[in-house]
């Protein structure tokens, strides 16, 4: 008998830089309950834009992804737009920010926080 390999796709993944930043922010706030919420809203220069916030509460319909000691939350409306996306964190001349590398986006704007499907 051959074994069947099962694969459960992860809604979002985090780069090591993003995991490290979330971990350091949790330590700064002295709150291990903080979770990174990634969401999509209408607007921006390309139709949709990404948003990030920290949340202690998990809604019943949230999808939670645990990566090491960091949890990412995605609400059901944002799920369809973020499936397969990667969250990164960068520090540069434009400042420091979380950003999303999204395979579902057909176009993105120059600021990197807006996209279209």
TrEMBL record:
Q: According to its UniProt record, which cofactors does this protein need?
A: iron-sulfur cluster
Detail which positions bind iron-sulfur cluster.
45, 109, 111
> Might you name a Gene Ontology BP term for this protein?
iron-sulfur cluster assembly
Coiled coil regions in record:
none
Molecular-function GO terms, alphabetical: 2 iron, 2 sulfur cluster binding; 4 iron, 4 sulfur cluster binding; iron ion binding
User: Where does the source fall among the domains of life?
Assistant: Bacteria
**Co-factor binding comment:** Binds 1 iron-sulfur cluster per subunit.
Q: Mind telling me which Pfam families this protein's record contains? A: Fe-S_biosyn
User: Which GO CC terms are listed, alphabetically?
Assistant: cytosol
Q: Which InterPro entries match?
A: ATAP (IPR016092), ATAP_core_dom (IPR000361), ErpA_proteobact (IPR023063), FeS_cluster_insertion_CS (IPR017870), HesB-like_dom_sf (IPR035903)
Which terms are listed as keywords in the entry? Iron, Iron-sulfur, Metal-binding
Q: Which residues form the Core domain?
A: 12-112
Function, in words? Required for insertion of 4Fe-4S clusters for at least IspG.
Family stated for the protein in its record: Belongs to the HesB/IscA family.
Q: How does it assemble?
A: Homodimer.
**Entry's NCBIfam families?**
iron-sulfur cluster assembly accessory protein, PRK13623.1
The record's HAMAP family line, in alphabetical order, gives: Fe_S_insert_ErpA (MF_01380)
Q: What is this protein called?
A: Iron-sulfur cluster insertion protein ErpA
- Source organism per UniProt: Litorivivens lipolytica
Tell me the name of the encoding gene: erpA
